[in-house]
Design goal:
- Helix content is 36%, strand content 18%.
- It has 331 residues and is α/β, with parallel strands linked by helices.
- The strands form 2 sheets. Strands 1, 2, 3, 4, 5, 6, 7, 8, 9 and 12 form a 10-stranded mixed sheet that branches. A two-stranded antiparallel sheet has the order 10-11.
- A hairpin with a 6-residue loop joins β10 and β11.
- α4 packs across α6, α6 packs parallel to α7 and α10 runs parallel beside α11.
- The protein is globular and about 50 Å long.
Length: 331
Amino acid sequence: MNPRKPLRPLLALAAVVSLTGTAFALAPAGQAATPDPIGLNAPYEYLGWGNPQSPTAVMSATGVKQFTLAFMLSDGGCNPKWDGSRALTGGSDQSAINSIRAAGGDVVISFGGWSGNKLGEKCSSASALAGAYQKVINAYKLKAIDIDIEDTEVASATVRQRVVDALKIVKNDNPGIREYVTFGTTPTGPDAAGVDLIKKGAKAGLALDGWTIMPFDFGGHSGSMGSVTVTAADGLKKAVASAYGYDSATAYRHIGISSMNGKTDESDETVSVADFTTIADYAKAHHLARFTFWSVNRDRQCPSGTPAGDACSGIGQAPYAFTKIVAGYHG
Protein backbone atom coordinates (compact mmCIF):
# COMPACT_ATOMS: atom_id res chain seq x y z
CA MET A 1 0.00 0.00 0.00
CA ASN A 2 1.13 3.57 0.11
CA PRO A 3 0.93 4.84 3.68
CA ARG A 4 2.30 8.30 2.94
CA LYS A 5 -0.38 10.30 4.69
CA PRO A 6 -2.95 10.00 7.50
CA LEU A 7 -5.39 7.73 5.65
CA ARG A 8 -2.77 4.99 5.60
CA PRO A 9 -0.85 4.02 8.76
CA LEU A 10 2.70 5.31 8.84
CA LEU A 11 4.15 1.87 9.33
CA ALA A 12 5.22 -0.50 6.57
CA LEU A 13 3.74 -3.04 4.23
CA ALA A 14 4.60 -6.09 2.16
CA ALA A 15 2.97 -9.43 2.35
CA VAL A 16 3.40 -12.97 3.34
CA VAL A 17 0.40 -14.92 2.28
CA SER A 18 -0.91 -18.01 3.94
CA LEU A 19 -4.10 -19.54 2.80
CA THR A 20 -5.37 -23.03 3.22
CA GLY A 21 -7.39 -23.08 0.03
CA THR A 22 -10.72 -22.80 1.79
CA ALA A 23 -12.16 -20.07 -0.43
CA PHE A 24 -14.00 -21.68 -3.30
CA ALA A 25 -14.78 -20.36 -6.75
CA LEU A 26 -18.21 -20.84 -8.22
CA ALA A 27 -18.31 -23.67 -10.74
CA PRO A 28 -20.73 -24.47 -13.58
CA ALA A 29 -23.55 -26.89 -12.78
CA GLY A 30 -22.27 -30.42 -12.53
CA GLN A 31 -18.69 -29.38 -11.79
CA ALA A 32 -17.02 -29.32 -8.40
CA ALA A 33 -15.96 -25.94 -7.01
CA THR A 34 -12.21 -25.39 -6.88
CA PRO A 35 -10.29 -23.39 -4.26
CA ASP A 36 -9.40 -19.81 -5.10
CA PRO A 37 -5.63 -19.35 -5.50
CA ILE A 38 -3.89 -18.22 -2.35
CA GLY A 39 -3.90 -14.42 -2.15
CA LEU A 40 -6.25 -13.97 -5.11
CA ASN A 41 -8.94 -12.02 -3.25
CA ALA A 42 -7.57 -11.19 0.20
CA PRO A 43 -8.46 -7.61 1.27
CA TYR A 44 -6.13 -5.85 3.68
CA GLU A 45 -7.03 -5.52 7.33
CA TYR A 46 -4.75 -3.88 9.85
CA LEU A 47 -5.42 -5.27 13.30
CA GLY A 48 -3.23 -2.66 15.02
CA TRP A 49 -5.02 0.41 13.63
CA GLY A 50 -8.27 1.90 12.46
CA ASN A 51 -10.71 0.35 14.95
CA PRO A 52 -10.43 -3.04 13.22
CA GLN A 53 -13.48 -5.22 12.81
CA SER A 54 -13.48 -8.81 13.98
CA PRO A 55 -12.15 -10.81 11.01
CA THR A 56 -14.63 -13.61 11.61
CA ALA A 57 -17.49 -11.10 11.72
CA VAL A 58 -16.29 -9.75 8.37
CA MET A 59 -16.21 -13.29 6.99
CA SER A 60 -19.77 -13.91 8.13
CA ALA A 61 -21.04 -10.61 6.70
CA THR A 62 -19.29 -10.73 3.33
CA GLY A 63 -18.34 -14.30 2.41
CA VAL A 64 -14.68 -13.32 2.16
CA LYS A 65 -12.32 -16.15 3.17
CA GLN A 66 -8.89 -14.57 2.77
CA PHE A 67 -7.31 -11.57 4.49
CA THR A 68 -4.03 -9.76 4.03
CA LEU A 69 -2.99 -8.82 7.55
CA ALA A 70 -0.63 -5.86 8.00
CA PHE A 71 2.20 -5.45 8.96
CA MET A 72 5.34 -7.54 9.40
CA LEU A 73 8.44 -5.36 9.85
CA SER A 74 12.00 -5.47 11.09
CA ASP A 75 12.68 -5.21 14.81
CA GLY A 76 15.65 -3.01 13.93
CA GLY A 77 17.70 -5.90 12.61
CA CYS A 78 17.06 -8.80 10.28
CA ASN A 79 14.31 -10.23 12.46
CA PRO A 80 10.56 -10.06 11.71
CA LYS A 81 8.01 -8.78 14.21
CA TRP A 82 4.46 -7.51 13.88
CA ASP A 83 4.75 -3.73 13.37
CA GLY A 84 8.41 -4.19 14.27
CA SER A 85 7.57 -4.61 17.94
CA ARG A 86 5.02 -7.35 18.68
CA ALA A 87 6.19 -10.94 18.95
CA LEU A 88 5.96 -13.01 15.80
CA THR A 89 3.82 -15.65 17.51
CA GLY A 90 1.83 -16.09 20.69
CA GLY A 91 0.04 -12.75 20.78
CA SER A 92 -3.20 -11.18 19.58
CA ASP A 93 -2.12 -11.40 15.94
CA GLN A 94 -1.77 -15.15 16.13
CA SER A 95 -5.09 -15.39 17.95
CA ALA A 96 -6.76 -13.54 15.08
CA ILE A 97 -5.15 -15.83 12.51
CA ASN A 98 -6.22 -18.89 14.49
CA SER A 99 -9.82 -17.62 14.55
CA ILE A 100 -9.82 -16.95 10.79
CA ARG A 101 -8.55 -20.44 10.09
CA ALA A 102 -11.00 -22.02 12.52
CA ALA A 103 -13.80 -20.30 10.57
CA GLY A 104 -12.58 -21.84 7.32
CA GLY A 105 -10.40 -19.00 6.04
CA ASP A 106 -6.75 -18.04 5.98
CA VAL A 107 -4.39 -15.08 5.77
CA VAL A 108 -1.78 -13.15 3.88
CA ILE A 109 0.79 -11.51 6.14
CA SER A 110 2.01 -8.21 4.81
CA PHE A 111 5.69 -7.11 4.90
CA GLY A 112 7.12 -3.68 4.06
CA GLY A 113 5.19 -0.54 3.15
CA TRP A 114 5.88 3.16 3.19
CA SER A 115 7.57 3.63 6.57
CA GLY A 116 9.02 1.77 9.51
CA ASN A 117 12.01 -0.55 9.48
CA LYS A 118 11.91 -2.79 6.41
CA LEU A 119 13.49 -6.21 6.31
CA GLY A 120 14.64 -5.58 2.75
CA GLU A 121 16.91 -2.82 4.07
CA LYS A 122 17.85 -4.26 7.44
CA CYS A 123 18.88 -7.70 6.14
CA SER A 124 22.33 -7.36 4.60
CA SER A 125 22.09 -10.11 1.99
CA ALA A 126 19.54 -11.95 -0.10
CA SER A 127 20.09 -15.13 1.88
CA ALA A 128 19.54 -13.32 5.18
CA LEU A 129 16.38 -11.67 3.83
CA ALA A 130 15.10 -15.00 2.56
CA GLY A 131 15.75 -16.39 6.03
CA ALA A 132 13.63 -13.66 7.60
CA TYR A 133 10.78 -14.36 5.17
CA GLN A 134 11.17 -18.08 5.85
CA LYS A 135 10.89 -17.53 9.59
CA VAL A 136 7.40 -16.10 9.11
CA ILE A 137 6.46 -18.74 6.56
CA ASN A 138 7.42 -21.45 9.02
CA ALA A 139 5.73 -19.78 11.98
CA TYR A 140 2.36 -19.63 10.21
CA LYS A 141 2.72 -22.47 7.69
CA LEU A 142 2.21 -19.97 4.89
CA LYS A 143 1.46 -20.89 1.31
CA ALA A 144 2.24 -17.54 -0.31
CA ILE A 145 4.08 -14.26 0.22
CA ASP A 146 3.61 -10.76 -1.15
CA ILE A 147 6.23 -8.08 -0.61
CA ASP A 148 4.99 -4.49 -0.55
CA ILE A 149 8.08 -2.52 -1.52
CA GLU A 150 7.92 1.26 -1.14
CA ASP A 151 9.74 4.47 -0.20
CA THR A 152 13.47 3.98 0.48
CA GLU A 153 13.19 0.23 -0.05
CA VAL A 154 11.99 0.50 -3.64
CA ALA A 155 14.19 3.54 -4.32
CA SER A 156 17.37 1.53 -3.79
CA ALA A 157 18.56 -0.56 -6.75
CA THR A 158 20.59 -2.66 -4.31
CA VAL A 159 17.54 -3.44 -2.20
CA ARG A 160 15.38 -4.12 -5.25
CA GLN A 161 17.90 -6.75 -6.33
CA ARG A 162 18.10 -8.16 -2.81
CA VAL A 163 14.32 -8.60 -2.63
CA VAL A 164 14.21 -10.30 -6.04
CA ASP A 165 17.05 -12.66 -5.12
CA ALA A 166 15.48 -13.45 -1.73
CA LEU A 167 12.16 -14.26 -3.36
CA LYS A 168 13.88 -16.62 -5.76
CA ILE A 169 15.48 -18.45 -2.82
CA VAL A 170 12.11 -18.70 -1.08
CA LYS A 171 10.47 -19.97 -4.28
CA ASN A 172 13.11 -22.66 -4.64
CA ASP A 173 12.92 -23.70 -1.00
CA ASN A 174 9.11 -23.82 -0.80
CA PRO A 175 7.65 -25.74 -3.76
CA GLY A 176 4.23 -24.44 -4.69
CA ILE A 177 4.45 -21.21 -2.70
CA ARG A 178 2.81 -18.18 -4.30
CA GLU A 179 4.70 -14.88 -4.33
CA TYR A 180 3.40 -11.37 -4.96
CA VAL A 181 5.20 -8.02 -5.07
CA THR A 182 3.21 -4.81 -4.48
CA PHE A 183 4.39 -1.29 -5.37
CA GLY A 184 3.18 2.16 -6.39
CA THR A 185 2.42 3.32 -9.91
CA THR A 186 1.93 6.35 -12.13
CA PRO A 187 -1.38 6.82 -14.00
CA THR A 188 0.13 5.07 -17.03
CA GLY A 189 1.99 2.24 -15.33
CA PRO A 190 5.04 1.56 -13.14
CA ASP A 191 7.63 4.29 -12.74
CA ALA A 192 11.32 3.73 -13.48
CA ALA A 193 11.94 1.94 -10.18
CA GLY A 194 8.93 -0.33 -10.73
CA VAL A 195 9.98 -1.17 -14.27
CA ASP A 196 13.52 -1.91 -13.07
CA LEU A 197 12.16 -4.17 -10.34
CA ILE A 198 10.20 -6.18 -12.91
CA LYS A 199 13.23 -6.37 -15.21
CA LYS A 200 15.40 -7.56 -12.34
CA GLY A 201 12.85 -10.27 -11.59
CA ALA A 202 12.79 -11.44 -15.19
CA LYS A 203 16.58 -11.41 -15.51
CA ALA A 204 16.90 -13.46 -12.31
CA GLY A 205 14.37 -16.00 -13.56
CA LEU A 206 11.98 -15.18 -10.72
CA ALA A 207 8.66 -16.90 -11.48
CA LEU A 208 6.57 -14.36 -9.61
CA ASP A 209 2.87 -15.10 -9.35
CA GLY A 210 1.68 -11.49 -9.39
CA TRP A 211 3.25 -8.07 -9.88
CA THR A 212 0.71 -5.83 -8.13
CA ILE A 213 0.26 -2.05 -8.45
CA MET A 214 -1.39 0.37 -6.02
CA PRO A 215 -3.25 2.75 -8.36
CA PHE A 216 -3.85 5.71 -6.03
CA ASP A 217 -1.92 8.62 -4.48
CA PHE A 218 -0.90 9.57 -8.02
CA GLY A 219 -0.14 13.20 -7.24
CA GLY A 220 -2.38 14.22 -10.13
CA HIS A 221 -4.44 12.36 -12.72
CA SER A 222 -7.32 12.83 -15.15
CA GLY A 223 -10.52 10.84 -15.48
CA SER A 224 -12.27 8.62 -12.96
CA MET A 225 -10.33 6.43 -10.58
CA GLY A 226 -11.82 3.42 -12.30
CA SER A 227 -10.56 4.47 -15.72
CA VAL A 228 -7.11 5.58 -14.53
CA THR A 229 -6.69 2.27 -12.69
CA VAL A 230 -7.39 0.39 -15.92
CA THR A 231 -4.83 2.51 -17.77
CA ALA A 232 -2.21 1.98 -15.05
CA ALA A 233 -2.85 -1.78 -15.01
CA ASP A 234 -2.50 -1.96 -18.79
CA GLY A 235 0.86 -0.22 -18.37
CA LEU A 236 1.86 -2.82 -15.81
CA LYS A 237 0.82 -5.61 -18.17
CA LYS A 238 2.98 -4.15 -20.93
CA ALA A 239 6.00 -3.88 -18.59
CA VAL A 240 5.62 -7.49 -17.43
CA ALA A 241 5.07 -8.77 -20.97
CA SER A 242 8.15 -6.93 -22.22
CA ALA A 243 10.42 -8.10 -19.39
CA TYR A 244 9.32 -11.74 -19.38
CA GLY A 245 8.47 -12.22 -23.05
CA TYR A 246 4.89 -13.15 -22.16
CA ASP A 247 1.99 -12.77 -24.57
CA SER A 248 -0.76 -10.41 -23.36
CA ALA A 249 -3.00 -13.10 -21.87
CA THR A 250 -0.13 -14.61 -19.89
CA ALA A 251 1.05 -11.20 -18.71
CA TYR A 252 -2.41 -10.30 -17.40
CA ARG A 253 -2.40 -13.54 -15.40
CA HIS A 254 0.81 -12.37 -13.70
CA ILE A 255 -0.35 -8.93 -12.56
CA GLY A 256 -2.62 -7.64 -9.82
CA ILE A 257 -4.37 -4.53 -8.52
CA SER A 258 -4.46 -3.32 -4.94
CA SER A 259 -6.85 -0.34 -4.88
CA MET A 260 -8.01 1.93 -2.07
CA ASN A 261 -11.66 2.44 -1.17
CA GLY A 262 -13.35 5.82 -0.86
CA LYS A 263 -11.30 8.98 -0.43
CA THR A 264 -7.56 8.44 -0.70
CA ASP A 265 -4.71 10.60 0.60
CA GLU A 266 -5.11 12.92 -2.42
CA SER A 267 -7.91 15.52 -2.53
CA ASP A 268 -8.65 14.77 -6.20
CA GLU A 269 -9.03 11.01 -5.69
CA THR A 270 -12.19 9.15 -4.68
CA VAL A 271 -12.65 5.47 -5.47
CA SER A 272 -16.42 5.02 -5.56
CA VAL A 273 -18.24 1.70 -5.49
CA ALA A 274 -18.89 2.23 -9.21
CA ASP A 275 -15.16 2.78 -9.82
CA PHE A 276 -14.37 -0.36 -7.86
CA THR A 277 -16.89 -2.33 -9.90
CA THR A 278 -15.16 -1.10 -13.07
CA ILE A 279 -11.84 -2.34 -11.66
CA ALA A 280 -13.37 -5.69 -10.67
CA ASP A 281 -14.85 -6.13 -14.15
CA TYR A 282 -11.42 -5.44 -15.67
CA ALA A 283 -9.79 -7.97 -13.33
CA LYS A 284 -12.39 -10.59 -14.27
CA ALA A 285 -12.08 -9.92 -18.00
CA HIS A 286 -8.31 -10.43 -17.91
CA HIS A 287 -8.11 -13.06 -15.13
CA LEU A 288 -5.67 -11.09 -13.01
CA ALA A 289 -3.54 -12.94 -10.47
CA ARG A 290 -4.70 -10.71 -7.61
CA PHE A 291 -7.46 -8.23 -6.77
CA THR A 292 -7.44 -6.56 -3.36
CA PHE A 293 -7.75 -3.17 -1.63
CA TRP A 294 -6.83 -1.06 1.36
CA SER A 295 -8.70 -1.66 3.58
CA VAL A 296 -11.39 -3.57 5.45
CA ASN A 297 -10.90 -1.10 8.33
CA ARG A 298 -12.14 1.69 6.04
CA ASP A 299 -14.96 -0.28 4.41
CA ARG A 300 -17.79 1.59 6.11
CA GLN A 301 -19.40 5.01 5.95
CA CYS A 302 -18.07 7.71 8.26
CA PRO A 303 -20.30 9.02 11.03
CA SER A 304 -21.83 12.42 10.27
CA GLY A 305 -19.20 15.14 10.54
CA THR A 306 -16.28 12.71 10.50
CA PRO A 307 -13.83 12.89 7.57
CA ALA A 308 -12.33 9.91 5.81
CA GLY A 309 -9.60 8.32 7.83
CA ASP A 310 -8.20 5.08 9.14
CA ALA A 311 -11.61 3.69 10.12
CA CYS A 312 -14.02 4.88 7.41
CA SER A 313 -14.08 5.66 3.69
CA GLY A 314 -15.42 9.20 3.53
CA ILE A 315 -18.13 8.28 1.01
CA GLY A 316 -21.71 7.13 1.18
CA GLN A 317 -21.64 3.34 1.10
CA ALA A 318 -23.16 0.22 2.56
CA PRO A 319 -21.05 -1.62 5.13
CA TYR A 320 -18.44 -3.86 3.47
CA ALA A 321 -19.46 -2.79 -0.04
CA PHE A 322 -15.87 -3.12 -1.29
CA THR A 323 -15.06 -6.32 0.60
CA LYS A 324 -18.11 -8.01 -0.89
CA ILE A 325 -16.94 -7.12 -4.40
CA VAL A 326 -13.48 -8.56 -3.69
CA ALA A 327 -15.03 -11.70 -2.19
CA GLY A 328 -16.82 -12.24 -5.49
CA TYR A 329 -13.60 -12.21 -7.50
CA HIS A 330 -12.46 -15.70 -8.51
CA GLY A 331 -9.89 -14.98 -11.19
